[in-house]
């Protein structure tokens, strides 16, 4: 039980750390509000859960045995993150379609969920994290209910951390700042996401 709690805490810290998930949650919250942010964060949380399950079933070990596979995952993931960054940079000058509530016209729930899921799955680093932490923390013979609880905590950690960021950025003060400095902020978000993509491809 102590090892499982330690694994949960380690993932909570990792989920709260700056990365693609936090960047996307922040931008979605400030531009499209908490409802769209909720769908995005659901996709991010499901992606984290899939990586955790994959690690428990040996994907991280497969990456160690076949490093070329990890390299390919990294390149594809980096390309996807850089593509998102390029879209942010390209459309930074475009004005938002702002209705009465002061928010951009939102994505459909499915589109936001899909973006979150794909962005999370595009980053193979969670598989390495889960492989290092979870495989060591979950000893053979652990009761299935405890494994299920640990997996549920992964979903909850990711959901809580990203949704908290989306909510904070959806408040009126951050949104006013965003609307005033849209070009600079969008390009800053895009530049940070592109840097993360390059780092993913080269580490």
Walk me through what this model shows:
With 203 residues, the chain is an all-alpha fold. The chain has one domain (2-66, 95-173). The chain has 9 helices and no strands. Helix 3 (59-65) packs across helix 4 and helix 4 runs antiparallel to helix 9. The radius of gyration is 18 Å and the shape is globular. The mean pLDDT is 81.
Give a topology summary:
Blueprint: H1 2-16, H2 20-56, H3 59-65, H4 67-90, H5 109-121, H6 125-137, H7 144-170, H8 172-180, H9 182-202
User: Could you say how many structural domains there are in total?
Assistant: 1
Strand content: under 5%
Structural class: mainly alpha
Oligomer: single chain
Radius of gyration, in angstroms, nearest whole number: 18 Å
Note the gap between the termini: 33 Å
> How many DSSP helices?
9
| Helix-strand string | HHHHHHHHH
Helicity level, as a percent range?
over 70%
Number of strands: 0
Are there runs of 5+ residues with pLDDT below 50, and where? Answer: none
Largest sheet: none
Estimate the mean pLDDT confidence: 81
Provide a quick synopsis of the model.
The chain is mainly α and about 200 residues long.
List keywords for this structure.
0% strand; 203 residues; mainly alpha; 82% helix
């Amino acid at each position: 039980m102590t090892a499982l709690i330690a694994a949960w805490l380690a993932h909570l810290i990792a989920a709260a750390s700056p990365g693609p998930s936090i960047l996307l949650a922040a931008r979605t919250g400030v531009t499209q509000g908490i409802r769209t942010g909720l769908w995005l964060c659901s996709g991010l949380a499901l992606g984290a859960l899939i990586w955790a399950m994959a690690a428990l079933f040996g994907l991280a070990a497969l990456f160690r045995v076949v490093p070329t596979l990890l390299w390919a995952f990294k390149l594809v993931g980096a390309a996807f993150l850089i593509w998102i960054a390029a879209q942010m940079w390209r459309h930074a000058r475009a004005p938002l379609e702002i209705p009465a509530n002061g928010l951009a016209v939102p994505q459909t729930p499915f589109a936001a969920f899909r973006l979150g899921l794909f962005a999370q799955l595009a980053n193979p680093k969670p598989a390495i994290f889960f492989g290092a932490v979870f495989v060591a923390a979950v000893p053979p013979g652990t009761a299935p209910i405890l494994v299920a609880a640990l997996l549920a905590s992964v979903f909850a950690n990711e959901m809580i951390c990203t949704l908290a960021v989306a909510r904070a950025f959806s408040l009126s003060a951050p949104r006013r700042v965003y609307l005033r400095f849209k070009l600079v902020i969008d390009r800053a978000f895009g530049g940070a996401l592109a840097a993360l993509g390059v780092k993913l491809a080269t580490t």
